[in-house]
Amino acid sequence: MEIDVFPTITSATDEGLNGKVVLVVDTLRATTTIAAALDAGCLEIIPVITPEEAIEMRERLGDERVLLGGERGAVKIPGFDLGNSPLEYTPEIVQGKRIIMTTTNGTRAIRKATPARLVLLAALINAPAVAEAVVGMGGGDITILCAGTRDRFSLEDFLTAGLLVSELEKKGNYILRDGALAAREFYRTVRTDILKVLKQSLHGAQLLELGFGPDLEYSSQVGILKVVPVYNGGLVKKYSAGD
Amino acid sequence: MEIDVFPTITSATDEGLNGKVVLVVDTLRATTTIAAALDAGCLEIIPVITPEEAIEMRERLGDERVLLGGERGAVKIPGFDLGNSPLEYTPEIVQGKRIIMTTTNGTRAIRKATPARLVLLAALINAPAVAEAVVGMGGGDITILCAGTRDRFSLEDFLTAGLLVSELEKKGNYILRDGALAAREFYRTVRTDILKVLKQSLHGAQLLELGFGPDLEYSSQVGILKVVPVYNGGLVKKYSAGD
Ligand SMILES: [Mg+2]
Ligand SMILES: [Mg+2]
Question: What cofactor does its activity depend on (chains A, B) (predicted)?
């Protein structure tokens, strides 16, 4: 069983996705926010590529439990109910709701992962739980697909990939391909100062400037959630061992 | 002035290449071998994508100084004069020669870099010289394009990217994008054991098995050559400050 890491969506090869267990990472902030939303009792998240798609889908569904969430340029989309801050997705707001979501990088990464056998979503806040679920399922190669930032390498996703590799290694017996080795090494080197890495990253610095410092702090808390989001048939829900 | 790193050919975006100074890295072994060949007195290297293209070009050129070099599956191509081992490219064999070369990853990476303002080729053996040449040229964004191994992240190229970032930073004033930060961090962590990293990498391990251990040793020697290969108009030659 192998683990490899693709640092951006565009770098992912078909061979690296087809039939694999793919862990999609968009730590700032889509996969963090999705984990937080599910943990807060949201029923499901429907990732879509464009804001127009989201608005059309809400009309088509005609379900009053539907909320629209997501960002462009890191800020809430006009007409949407929620932005892309995990701190907005509280039980008071999202419990029992279905959220149609579109973000710049994260939802594209989730869609890119569809040739996989199983797609789970990971961030720093739930990586240990995701690793445990993966090992619990037994065999198979694992591909970690980093969303990156506008098709560029992103530090926070590579860091999370390294944490995932490190957690998987503790629990299972894997051969690490080069991307996994480098990510693990990076994680090990900076593990005592995760928040600093998030602030140092290009996208983290942009979020800080926009006043999203609390999002960085929240996103940096390794393993605070046990929730494992799974993407299947166009929907993200909580994973349970039977899936 | 920015530095960014693309860990694979497929991850490189047009925006990251157009008009930039691009440093192409294929440490195992194309850019190591090209640096060695130029250092040994080879006049020029003509990178081509396929063995067929190489053979046709030799016929078309009708020049007895032409040699064919390169590999498929890491071994010499049938009918070629040379493989892809830097140790084959000695002054006795390559001095005054023109070499048409095709390799699995490196020559593709060089071709991919063509929208750049300037394309230089780097490996561990000549990275400090390449960094010095780049800083000497003055301004402009720098993109480090790793060849990777069959479109996968490769440890040895990421390591070399990190060495380049580290050398550039010593000499110039650059903003590091996330890929450059991660590569530099990786280089710093493993810098005292470069050969071990080469052996640990997927492609390095394959080369070891094929008996190319001495190539790994040669390739691991940081800064032993002062040669700076430049790719321009389809040819790789020695760079001089006027280029
Ligand atoms: Mg992101
Ligand atoms: Mg290579």
Answer: Mg(2+)
Collapsing DSSP to helix, strand or coil, B238 comes out as strand
CB B229 within 8 A of CB B110: no
**How much distance in Å is there from the Cα of B105 to the middle of ligand 1?**
29
Q: Where are the beta strands (DSSP E) in B13-127?
A: 21-25, 44-47, 66-72, 75-76, 98-102, 118-122
Contact A179 B11 (CB under 8 A): no
Instruction: Please report the ipTM that was assigned to this predicted complex.
Output: 0.93
Is there a contact between B51 and B102 (Cβ–Cβ < 8 Å)?
A: yes
Q: Domain-by-domain residue ranges, chain B?
A: 2-225
Chain B nearest-CA distance from A15, in A, is 10
Q: Are A59 and A33 in contact (CB under 8 A)?
A: no
- Dist CA B171 CA B186 (whole Å): 20
DSSP string covering A163-176: HHHHHHHHHS--EE
Q: Is the CB of residue B185 less than 8 Å away from at least one CB of chain A?
A: yes
- Nearest alpha carbon to residue A37 among A122, A103, A98: A98
CA of B70 to the centre of ligand 2 (A): 12
Please state, in angstroms and rounded to a whole number, the distance separating the CA atoms of residues A119 and A137: 13
CATH architecture of A2-225: Alpha-Beta Complex (3.90)
Q: Per residue of chain A (243 residues), what is the pLDDT tens digit?
A: 999 999 999 999 999 999 999 999 999 999 999 999 999 999 999 999 999 999 999 999 999 999 999 999 999 999 999 999 999 999 999 999 999 999 999 999 999 999 999 999 999 999 999 999 999 988 799 999 999 999 999 999 999 999 999 999 998 899 999 999 999 999 999 999 999 999 999 999 999 999 999 999 999 999 999 999 999 999 999 998 766
A44 CA to centre of ligand 1 in angstroms? 21
